[in-house]
Amino acid sequence: MDTHLHHEEQHLKSSDTLRDIVIGMSDGLTVPFALAAGLSGAVDSTGIIVIAGIAEIAAGSIAMGLGGYLAGKTEQDHYNSELKREFYEVENLRHKEVEETKEFFANIGLSEELQNKATEEIAKDKKQWVDFMMKYELGLDKPDPRRATKSALNIGLSYIVGGLVPLSPYFFVDSPADGLKISVVITLLCLFIFGFFKSRITGVNAWWGALRVMLIGAAAASAAFGIAKLIGG
Protein backbone atom coordinates (compact mmCIF):
# COMPACT_ATOMS: atom_id res chain seq x y z
CA MET A 1 0.00 0.00 0.00
CA ASP A 2 1.39 3.39 -0.95
CA THR A 3 1.52 5.51 2.17
CA HIS A 4 3.30 8.48 0.56
CA LEU A 5 1.47 11.75 0.32
CA HIS A 6 1.29 13.04 -3.21
CA HIS A 7 1.33 16.73 -3.88
CA GLU A 8 0.23 17.73 -7.34
CA GLU A 9 1.07 21.29 -8.30
CA GLN A 10 -1.23 23.04 -10.71
CA HIS A 11 0.68 25.10 -13.24
CA LEU A 12 -0.33 26.66 -16.52
CA LYS A 13 1.04 24.42 -19.26
CA SER A 14 1.97 25.42 -22.80
CA SER A 15 1.99 29.08 -21.81
CA ASP A 16 3.85 30.02 -25.01
CA THR A 17 1.16 28.44 -27.16
CA LEU A 18 -1.61 30.13 -25.18
CA ARG A 19 0.16 33.46 -25.47
CA ASP A 20 0.43 33.03 -29.25
CA ILE A 21 -3.26 32.19 -29.54
CA VAL A 22 -4.22 35.20 -27.41
CA ILE A 23 -2.08 37.53 -29.56
CA GLY A 24 -3.41 36.19 -32.86
CA MET A 25 -7.04 35.85 -31.81
CA SER A 26 -7.32 39.27 -30.16
CA ASP A 27 -5.99 41.10 -33.22
CA GLY A 28 -7.88 38.80 -35.59
CA LEU A 29 -11.19 39.59 -33.94
CA THR A 30 -10.56 43.33 -33.62
CA VAL A 31 -8.82 44.53 -36.81
CA PRO A 32 -11.03 42.85 -39.45
CA PHE A 33 -14.07 43.82 -37.35
CA ALA A 34 -13.06 47.47 -37.48
CA LEU A 35 -12.28 47.21 -41.22
CA ALA A 36 -15.63 45.61 -42.04
CA ALA A 37 -17.47 48.18 -39.91
CA GLY A 38 -15.65 51.03 -41.60
CA LEU A 39 -16.37 49.72 -45.09
CA SER A 40 -20.03 49.17 -44.15
CA GLY A 41 -20.29 52.89 -43.64
CA ALA A 42 -18.66 53.72 -46.96
CA VAL A 43 -19.74 51.17 -49.61
CA ASP A 44 -22.99 49.61 -50.77
CA SER A 45 -21.65 46.17 -51.75
CA THR A 46 -20.95 43.30 -49.39
CA GLY A 47 -18.73 41.82 -52.12
CA ILE A 48 -16.25 44.65 -51.69
CA ILE A 49 -16.26 44.14 -47.92
CA VAL A 50 -15.66 40.40 -48.29
CA ILE A 51 -12.79 40.89 -50.76
CA ALA A 52 -11.17 43.60 -48.64
CA GLY A 53 -11.71 41.56 -45.47
CA ILE A 54 -10.12 38.42 -46.91
CA ALA A 55 -7.18 40.45 -48.20
CA GLU A 56 -6.71 42.01 -44.77
CA ILE A 57 -6.93 38.66 -43.00
CA ALA A 58 -4.34 37.19 -45.37
CA ALA A 59 -1.96 40.13 -44.98
CA GLY A 60 -2.56 40.41 -41.25
CA SER A 61 -2.00 36.71 -40.55
CA ILE A 62 1.26 36.75 -42.53
CA ALA A 63 2.49 39.89 -40.80
CA MET A 64 1.54 38.65 -37.33
CA GLY A 65 2.98 35.20 -38.01
CA LEU A 66 6.22 36.71 -39.26
CA GLY A 67 6.41 38.82 -36.11
CA GLY A 68 6.01 35.70 -33.99
CA TYR A 69 8.67 33.90 -36.02
CA LEU A 70 11.17 36.72 -35.63
CA ALA A 71 10.48 36.93 -31.90
CA GLY A 72 11.12 33.19 -31.56
CA LYS A 73 14.33 33.40 -33.59
CA THR A 74 15.52 36.35 -31.52
CA GLU A 75 14.97 34.37 -28.31
CA GLN A 76 16.89 31.40 -29.73
CA ASP A 77 19.74 33.58 -31.05
CA HIS A 78 20.03 35.33 -27.68
CA TYR A 79 20.23 32.00 -25.86
CA ASN A 80 22.89 30.66 -28.23
CA SER A 81 24.93 33.84 -27.88
CA GLU A 82 24.86 33.66 -24.09
CA LEU A 83 25.63 29.92 -24.19
CA LYS A 84 28.72 30.57 -26.29
CA ARG A 85 29.84 33.28 -23.89
CA GLU A 86 29.37 31.02 -20.86
CA PHE A 87 31.46 28.26 -22.43
CA TYR A 88 34.19 30.80 -23.13
CA GLU A 89 34.15 32.04 -19.55
CA VAL A 90 34.21 28.51 -18.11
CA GLU A 91 37.24 27.69 -20.25
CA ASN A 92 39.15 30.97 -20.03
CA LEU A 93 37.86 32.77 -16.91
CA ARG A 94 37.39 29.79 -14.64
CA HIS A 95 38.17 31.71 -11.42
CA LYS A 96 35.45 34.24 -12.23
CA GLU A 97 32.86 31.52 -12.87
CA VAL A 98 33.84 29.74 -9.65
CA GLU A 99 33.22 32.93 -7.68
CA GLU A 100 29.87 33.51 -9.39
CA THR A 101 28.80 29.93 -8.67
CA LYS A 102 29.82 30.20 -5.02
CA GLU A 103 27.97 33.51 -4.80
CA PHE A 104 24.78 31.83 -6.02
CA PHE A 105 25.03 29.16 -3.34
CA ALA A 106 25.80 31.82 -0.73
CA ASN A 107 22.67 33.71 -1.71
CA ILE A 108 20.48 30.66 -1.08
CA GLY A 109 21.95 30.23 2.39
CA LEU A 110 24.60 27.50 2.07
CA SER A 111 27.58 27.58 4.40
CA GLU A 112 30.99 28.35 2.94
CA GLU A 113 31.98 24.70 3.21
CA LEU A 114 28.92 23.57 1.25
CA GLN A 115 29.46 26.38 -1.25
CA ASN A 116 32.89 25.06 -2.03
CA LYS A 117 31.73 21.43 -2.23
CA ALA A 118 28.75 22.21 -4.45
CA THR A 119 30.83 24.41 -6.76
CA GLU A 120 33.54 21.78 -7.00
CA GLU A 121 30.99 19.10 -7.87
CA ILE A 122 29.27 21.17 -10.56
CA ALA A 123 32.57 22.30 -12.09
CA LYS A 124 33.60 18.69 -12.79
CA ASP A 125 31.32 18.61 -15.85
CA LYS A 126 31.74 21.61 -18.15
CA LYS A 127 28.35 21.22 -19.86
CA GLN A 128 26.56 20.73 -16.54
CA TRP A 129 28.30 23.81 -15.18
CA VAL A 130 27.36 25.93 -18.18
CA ASP A 131 23.74 24.73 -18.08
CA PHE A 132 23.63 25.60 -14.38
CA MET A 133 24.95 29.11 -14.98
CA MET A 134 22.59 29.69 -17.90
CA LYS A 135 19.58 28.78 -15.78
CA TYR A 136 20.47 30.21 -12.39
CA GLU A 137 22.82 33.09 -13.18
CA LEU A 138 21.15 34.37 -16.34
CA GLY A 139 17.66 32.95 -15.81
CA LEU A 140 17.57 31.46 -19.30
CA ASP A 141 15.95 28.14 -20.21
CA LYS A 142 16.88 26.43 -23.44
CA PRO A 143 14.25 27.42 -26.01
CA ASP A 144 12.50 24.90 -28.20
CA PRO A 145 14.38 24.94 -31.55
CA ARG A 146 10.99 24.75 -33.29
CA ARG A 147 9.56 27.58 -31.22
CA ALA A 148 9.82 30.22 -33.98
CA THR A 149 7.94 28.09 -36.52
CA LYS A 150 5.32 27.03 -33.96
CA SER A 151 4.77 30.63 -32.91
CA ALA A 152 4.32 31.78 -36.49
CA LEU A 153 1.74 29.07 -37.18
CA ASN A 154 -0.12 29.56 -33.89
CA ILE A 155 -0.40 33.33 -34.29
CA GLY A 156 -1.17 33.24 -38.01
CA LEU A 157 -3.88 30.58 -37.75
CA SER A 158 -5.42 32.22 -34.69
CA TYR A 159 -5.57 35.51 -36.59
CA ILE A 160 -7.37 33.82 -39.49
CA VAL A 161 -9.90 32.13 -37.21
CA GLY A 162 -10.53 35.37 -35.34
CA GLY A 163 -10.77 37.42 -38.53
CA LEU A 164 -13.37 35.18 -40.14
CA VAL A 165 -15.79 35.76 -37.26
CA PRO A 166 -16.69 39.42 -38.02
CA LEU A 167 -16.43 38.86 -41.76
CA SER A 168 -18.63 35.75 -42.02
CA PRO A 169 -22.06 37.49 -41.95
CA TYR A 170 -21.20 39.43 -45.11
CA PHE A 171 -21.02 36.16 -47.05
CA PHE A 172 -24.74 35.56 -46.53
CA VAL A 173 -26.41 38.99 -46.87
CA ASP A 174 -26.67 41.55 -49.65
CA SER A 175 -26.81 44.69 -47.55
CA PRO A 176 -23.68 45.96 -45.71
CA ALA A 177 -25.97 47.40 -43.03
CA ASP A 178 -27.53 43.98 -42.37
CA GLY A 179 -24.11 42.36 -42.40
CA LEU A 180 -22.82 44.90 -39.90
CA LYS A 181 -25.71 44.30 -37.50
CA ILE A 182 -25.09 40.55 -37.44
CA SER A 183 -21.33 41.05 -37.32
CA VAL A 184 -21.60 43.35 -34.31
CA VAL A 185 -23.64 40.84 -32.33
CA ILE A 186 -21.48 37.83 -33.19
CA THR A 187 -18.14 39.59 -32.81
CA LEU A 188 -18.93 41.36 -29.54
CA LEU A 189 -20.18 38.06 -28.12
CA CYS A 190 -16.99 36.31 -29.23
CA LEU A 191 -14.86 39.14 -27.84
CA PHE A 192 -16.63 38.86 -24.51
CA ILE A 193 -16.15 35.08 -24.36
CA PHE A 194 -12.54 35.38 -25.53
CA GLY A 195 -11.84 38.10 -22.98
CA PHE A 196 -13.42 36.02 -20.23
CA PHE A 197 -11.23 32.96 -20.83
CA LYS A 198 -8.14 35.09 -21.50
CA SER A 199 -8.62 36.78 -18.14
CA ARG A 200 -9.21 33.46 -16.38
CA ILE A 201 -5.95 32.13 -17.80
CA THR A 202 -3.92 35.22 -16.86
CA GLY A 203 -5.45 35.54 -13.38
CA VAL A 204 -7.32 38.80 -14.01
CA ASN A 205 -10.94 39.34 -12.92
CA ALA A 206 -12.74 37.39 -15.64
CA TRP A 207 -15.87 39.53 -15.95
CA TRP A 208 -13.99 42.82 -16.01
CA GLY A 209 -11.48 41.40 -18.48
CA ALA A 210 -14.26 40.18 -20.76
CA LEU A 211 -16.02 43.55 -20.66
CA ARG A 212 -12.77 45.41 -21.35
CA VAL A 213 -11.91 43.30 -24.40
CA MET A 214 -15.44 43.69 -25.76
CA LEU A 215 -15.43 47.47 -25.26
CA ILE A 216 -12.07 47.82 -27.01
CA GLY A 217 -13.40 45.96 -30.05
CA ALA A 218 -16.61 48.00 -30.04
CA ALA A 219 -14.67 51.27 -29.80
CA ALA A 220 -12.41 50.33 -32.72
CA ALA A 221 -15.34 49.34 -34.93
CA SER A 222 -17.36 52.44 -33.98
CA ALA A 223 -14.44 54.73 -34.76
CA ALA A 224 -13.88 53.09 -38.15
CA PHE A 225 -17.58 53.25 -39.03
CA GLY A 226 -17.87 56.90 -37.89
CA ILE A 227 -14.80 58.03 -39.86
CA ALA A 228 -15.98 56.23 -43.00
CA LYS A 229 -19.42 57.86 -42.70
CA LEU A 230 -17.87 61.27 -42.10
CA ILE A 231 -15.51 61.04 -45.05
CA GLY A 232 -18.18 59.49 -47.27
CA GLY A 233 -20.64 62.20 -46.31
Short description:
The chain has 233 residues and is mostly helical. The chain contains 8 helices and no strands.
Annotate the secondary structure layout.
Layout: H1 15-40, H2 46-92, H3 94-107, H4 112-122, H5 126-136, H6 147-167, H7 176-202, H8 206-232
Helix pairs in contact: 1-2, 1-6, 1-7, 1-8, 2-3, 2-5, 2-6, 3-4, 7-8
Taking all Cα atoms into account, the compactness measure Rg is 26 Å
H/E element order: HHHHHHHH
| Main pleated sheet | none
Cα separation of the termini: 80 Å
The helicity comes to over 70%
Low-confidence stretches: 1-13
Number of domains: 1
- What is the average of the pLDDT values? 83
Structural class: mainly alpha
Q: What's the number of helices?
A: 8
The best one-word shape is elongated
What's the total count of β strands?
A: 0
Q: What does this molecule look like?
A:
With 233 residues, the protein is mainly alpha-helical. It has one domain (15-225). The protein has helices at 15-40, 46-92, 94-107, 112-122, 126-136, 147-167, 176-202, 206-232. Helix 1 (15-40) packs antiparallel against helix 7 and helix 2 (46-92) crosses helix 3 (94-107). It is elongated. The model is unreliable at 1-13 (pLDDT under 50).
